[in-house]
Amino acid sequence: MADGTSSRCIALLLLLAMAARADSVVTDGLLPNGNFEEGPSKSELNGTMVTGRYSIPNWEISGFVEYIESGKTQEGMILAVPEGARAVRLGNDGTIRQRLSVTRKTYYSITFSAARTCAQAERLNVSAAPESGILPIQTLYTSSGWDSYSYAFKARHSTVWFTIHNPGVEEDPACGPLIDSVAIKTLHRPHRVKGNMLKNGDFEEGPYIFPNSPWGVLVPPMDEDVVSPLPGWMIMSDTKAVKYVDATHFAVPHGSYAVELVAGTECALVQEVSTLTDRTYKLSFSVGDAANGCNQPLVVKAYAARSSLEVTYVSQGMGGSKRAELEFAAVSNLTRVVFQSMNHYMKPDGTLCGPVVDDISLVSVHKHAARRLFM
Question: For residue 276, which of 318, 211, 231, 334 has the smallest C-alpha distance?
Fold first, then answer.
C-alpha cells in the first residue's frame, strides 16, 4: 500500500512538473534548441533530409527539410553556419514550427538568421497566428552570406505556433534558405516621453540582437496594420529593409541602439503623429555613420508635412554624427515623419551600408511660419 501510494505521489509530482514546464512563459534569448545544435538521430536522416515530423528536438517539421552541418558543399558552394555547427535548410514547401507559451496581449519580436542558397527569388512566410508576413531575402546585406531578420506579433492566446515556411517550389527540391539561431524578445509598447511627441525616437526598444552577431538585425517592410519589431515605427518598401544596430558592434550616436538606412530611396522609416494645423513643429535628429567602413558622404532626407531637409554627413567610416533640425507647419491632424537615405552606398567588400539616424524628437514651437534650419 505504502509503495503504491508513493508511486502515485511520484507520478503526480512528475505530471505537475511537466504541466508547469508546459505553461512556462518564454524568456528573452534563444528558443529551446533555437540554434538546432540538437538534431535528428541517424535513423531519422536520409542523407541530409529529415524524415520524421518530430525528429528535430523542440521543433515540428513538414515538407522538404534538411539538417545541415557547417562545411557541407552543394555544387561547389560551401554551406556555412553562422552560429555553432548545425542549421536547417527549408527546401520545397519546407516548414519548421515551434509552440511557444506566451503572455496574452503581450508583444514579441522574433529574430532569426537566414542565408540564401540556390533558389532565385527566395522568400519566407513567417507567422505566429493570426499574424503573418512575407520576408523577402533576395538582397544580401553582409559579406558572410547570412543576415538576421526580425518579425513581431501580438499574442492573442497563451500559446502560439511560431512558423517559418519556404513557399518556393524549385526544380531542385533542396534549393531553399538556411535557417539558424531563432530567438525571442518581449517588446514593451512605446510611450511618449516628456519633450518628445514621437514614440521610441531613440530606438532603444527593438528586436533581439544576438550578442555575438556583428551584422545587426534587419527590420523588413511591413503593412501599416502589422506589428512592428521596431515599436512606434513602420518600414515602407516593397522588398528592402532597414538595419537595427547596437553600440556593441557599431557606432551609435545616442544610447545603445540606432537605425542604419541601408537601402537608399527604396525604403523609408516612418512614424505617424497627431498634430494641430495651426501650429509649427521642430523635428530634431542625429545623422552619422556606423563605423563599419561606409566612408563617403552620406545623405539623409527628412520629410514632414510639406517640408523636407537633406542632411549630408561626410563619413570617414569611423563613426561620428551631427545634429539637424527641420521646422514645418502641420497641414493636417496626422503628420507622417519620414527618413530616407538618398543613395545606395557600398563598403569596400561590396555590401550595402548607409547613414545612421538616431535620437529623433518632435516638439511644438507654436509658430505659424515654417522654416528650415541646419546645424
Answer: 334
